[in-house]
Task: structure prediction
Amino acid sequence: MTSTLTPVRSKRSQLTKGQLPKYAPYAVLGAALIVGAAVMALIGFNAFGWGIVSALLFAVGLVSWSAAAEGSRKAKDRLATCLVVGSFLIALLPLISVIWTVLVNGIPGLLNPGFLGNSMNGVTGVYDNRAVEEGGPVLGGVYHALLGTVQITLLATVISVPVGLLTAIYLVEYGNDGRLARAITFFVDVMTGIPSIVAGLFAAAFFFAVVGPGTKTGAVAAVALSVLMIPVVVRSSEEMLKIVPNELREAAYALGVRKWRTIIKVVIPTAISGIASGVTLAIARVIGETAPILVTAGFATSINSNVFSGWMASLPTFIYTQILNPTSPANPGPSAERAWGAALVLIILVMILNLAARLIARIFAPKTGR
Amino acid sequence: MSKRIDVKDLNVYYGDFLAVEDVSINIDAKSVTAFIGPSGCGKSTFLRTLNRMHEVIPGARVEGEVLLDGDNLYGPGVDPVTVRSQIGMVFQRPNPFPTMSIRDNVLAGVKLNNKKISKGEADVLVERSLKGANLWNEVKDRLDKPGSGLSGGQQQRLCIARAIAVEPQVILMDEPCSALDPISTLAIEDLINELKDQYTVVIVTHNMQQAARVSDKTAFFNIAGTGKPGKLIEFGDTHTIFSNPVEKATEDYVSGRFG
Result:
């Protein structure tokens, strides 16, 4: 019996003929960077221009090489890849830039002794001047502002979550897309677009009218923030309730369970992870608001732990006042340092909230597994 | 623990649209009744009117009477929730509650209604219901695992266990096997045969062999055309419907010469 096996000659597979080698994009990138640097050297070097020129050279080089070697379909694919990756990098640029700037400028402020534990009470320009002239430590901190931000945001959440969630439940479960439901949806959409300063003025005017002129407390700010927060909570909860399968509601009804019990025990638990993360993101959205807090809670330099009386500081207004009215007009450096530190604290706070949203979503998510 | 259902001159509307016209039917206690017919002929709609589940759909309403052992489901002051706790329902697609364990799914009818139940009683109820649904041996070691982790056929039997845990008089099944493989289908059919010792079972099916296998009586529904109301064409012993129907339309349908 003769063998039917013929030895396979080692050669390049016919199936991969006409493809660019794997290293092609890297080779083109390297060439683009070198040529880009050369071009920039002619017209005056800067890093930003180098990046732009190299990116353009890379795209042109890779696409034309691909068009020559692989044909037009593959070249279009490469072009699309270049555009997608390029857009992604452009979108990422401001984010990285912001985080970098805040980190570089904020860390010295954050590392000042007692920055998180002290307020600005009693810190005057004299100390700042001394810190600059004699190299002493920068005194003062954000404790009062951090406390104010946390309290105001917490109160705003306590106000907006019940209102927002109940509105969403009405819209999804009881509204039947009737006239009232459509009116509510319309006004919620309008509320989403309200400029934050208008929300602040509304809250201020409301409390002036109800409590008395000049009422500026943390609670007023919380009302202003909840005006901004409610539409976000309504919208996100509504979406989450809508995606609860109708079959689950029917299953509960078929067991002889009343509608309100079905909503409380079946619909909301099924949607709770989405609702919770939506609420957390709504908090993250309002925690950095400055304008409505300026007109409603004023700004304070000392610790005020009562949201219902007296002016209250918050991180955004702290940043604003430190930059605009430095504690020592002659030496604004320490104030700027404190402002950047406060900005870093604010960003960390928002980041923690976003992580918390993911954690909450994971903890509450319906369990699967065997 | 089972009651008969008598339907008199029932019309079902969605808004102004007449979906099912003039159905009169007598469903015996402790029997299996199958509804067959082409898609869109109103079998499921009619089934849902038997425990007022159609009211979940906005605009749906009925005219006529549905008597559960002589009591009209649509009489004045009758609470649909009371009706549904006596007439349970199993749906086309298995729908266990994803947030609950297997045990909690079985107890859902009790727990969602906030009835107090001791742990011992709950254990007995869970075991009895799961045994009744032929699922006990497969899940007894993992009662605390989520119900959504079971296979499709197991989930459907879990839904049946959940339905019988509230001890209804009647169980309605809306194409319970259409999303299942043949082996799970067989398990459900065996179960239906056992259920009829205690319950009145009404089942909608597209599978005529299934109707022939499981039911004592069969009702054939049909529509004259799109936009026309569905009607009950013929109702009788399953054997008669499949071997010697009175109506020409029934014969065409069961012999596959439809249309």
